[in-house]
Specification:
Elements lengths: L2 E2 L9 E9 L6 E3 L5 H9 L6 E8 L4 H14 L5 E6 L2 E6 L6 E10 L1 H15 L8 E7 L3 E8 L6 H19 L4 H4 L7 H13 L6 H10 L29 E8 L1 H14 L3 H17 L3 E9 L14 E9 L6 H15 L7 H8 L7 E7 L9 H4 L2 E4 L8 E8 L2 E8 L3 H21 L12
Helix pairs in contact: 2-4, 8-9, 8-10, 9-10, 9-13
Length: 461
């Protein structure tokens, strides 16, 4: 599974149609469940036109009635998608609409060749996703004689990466059931917990925090830089994030590349098993191992997003189930990759208790208005429902273009097809060179691990 921008997806020529959820004003009712601190921070900082989503191709002539039913049902099954937040003199409040009161309107935008179709869809998503206004998700289709491409874009405030991945199987199943004549009441019946409930519980957790909380102390210590201020660290290589700040930040470069095949993934898995560490620690350890070999980096700090889907009822729910933790990694004296991975495992274990403590509340208590500059995520997608059909569907998860001078994000993915890295970084010559060298180094390291004669890898100082 690749996580990339829409510009990297081969959209076929065809008729482009916009699908927009609607509801009558009289259908909305007050909802007294409170927003999470994370959602409130998102509303304060997110920009209109920023979105995440997914895209897939389904075979067979597009049945607009069945697809409309499936899209309505998907929104109906997940409360996060059919609620909104309204501003008032008394503050923010939730409002909600019942599943049966959500409709989907369609507008044919025209027939275009592949490049123009992709551009039309991209513009549509950017124009219609706004964190302050419902609907928080919109759809588009590009239909031709052989089938149709289906894409959605959503506000990040109501969705995380797992929600993007879960969508493929769920929407394909709902469409197939709608084609078979299943009624809306059955299609829209909720089968998961509600992220709105989860957010209300997260709010309670956040309000219990104070400046004396251990999680706040850990973050304060981590964020205190040499100048005494509270700031996030940068990518640990000079030149990649030293672009002068500007009123119009650079559009970030985006790159998605396969690092290794299933054979190489299994080899890394065996190495991790032998070292008693997780695959996540192995992947992040490989990153640190290569950065040291290429740039002499012994110590690095980054932010690691981790999921907060703690109960079975929320495992397949749509919502923003993410906590941020600060990672400090010192690999001085760790000469082999297993030793480096062991350091990562210890750092992850030390940070894990902070996952349920919302960072937005930490930022509020400490007065932090900075954002993460170096973020590393690991996702294992092999066992997500429908993963065995992703290639058949030409499925991809998507993110909108981002403007930033000093951010480096790495998404490390283990997939049925092997290992993938997706990244965004400043669009500069220095950053391009560092990132491509890192990716090349990771690919070479994984191939070396997979060689039968490789027992353990001696590191570089």
């Amino acid at each position: 599974m690749e996580y990339t921008e829409l510009s990297a997806y081969d959209v076929p020529p065809g008729e482009v149609t916009a699908w927009i959820p609607t509801a009558e004003p009289s259908a909305w009712v007050d909802d007294d469940r409170r927003l999470s601190h994370n959602h409130e921070l998102h509303l304060d900082t997110a920009e209109a036109g920023s979105w995440i989503g997914s895209i897939m191709r389904l075979h067979g002539q597009l049945d607009t009635q069945a697809l409309g039913l499936a899209l309505r049902a998907w929104i109906g099954r997940h409360e996060a998608l059919r609620g909104t937040v309204e501003e008032s003199a008394a503050g923010r409040r939730r409002r909600a609409v019942a599943a049966a009161d959500v409709s989907v309107t369609t507008t044919v935008l025209g027939r275009f060749d592949g490049e123009d179709a992709r551009g039309r869809v991209s513009d549509f998503l950017a124009d219609h996703i706004d964190p302050s206004a419902w609907p928080y998700v919109v759809f588009a289709t590009v239909a031709d004689a052989d089938g149709f491409t289906l894409v959605f874009g959503a506000d990040h405030g109501v969705m995380d990466a797992y929600s993007q991945l879960l969508w493929f199987e769920e929407i394909a199943s709902l469409y197939e059931r709608a084609l078979a004549g299943e009624p809306f009441a059955e299609l829209s019946a909720a089968t998961t917990g509600s992220h709105v409930d989860h957010a209300a519980e997260e709010r309670v957790t956040g309000e219990a925090m104070s400046l004396e909380s251990e999680s706040v102390r850990v973050w304060r210590d981590w964020l205190t830089g040499p100048d005494g201020g509270l700031r996030f660290s940068d990518f640990p290589v000079t030149g990649i994030t030293d672009v002068p700040a500007s009123a119009s930040p650079l559009t970030q470069a985006s790159l998605s590349q396969w690092l290794g095949d299933p054979r190489q993934a299994r080899a890394l898995g065996e190495l991790c098993k032998g070292a008693g560490v997780s695959f996540q620690a192995g992947m992040m350890g490989a990153m640190a191992y290569v950065l040291r070999a290429q740039h002499g980096v012994q110590r690095m700090r980054f932010v690691a997003p981790m999921h907060t889907r703690y109960t079975a009822e929320h495992a397949a729910a749509v919502g923003w189930y993410v906590g941020l933790v600060p990672i400090t990694l010192d690999i001085t004296g760790a000469t082999t990759l297993p030793e480096v991975a062991g350091r990562v495992q210890a750092a992850l274990a030390a940070a894990k208790p902070l996952v349920p403590q919302p960072f937005a509340r930490v930022a509020d208590l400490l007065g932090v208005d900075d954002a993460p500059h170096f973020v590393v995520t690991f996702v294992d997608t092999r066992f997500i429902s429908g993963a065995e059909r992703w290639n058949e569907w030409d499925a991809r998860t998507l993110r909108a273009p981002v403007r930033a001078d000093d951010e480096v994000y790495l998404w490390l993915v283990r997939d049925r097809d092997g290992l993938n890295v997706s990244t965004r970084y400043p669009e500069t010559v220095a950053a391009e060179r560092v990132v491509r060298d890192l990716i090349g180094g990771l690919s070479g390291l994984l191939e070396e691990i997979a060689q039968p004669e490789t027992a353990e890898l001696e590191g570089t100082a």
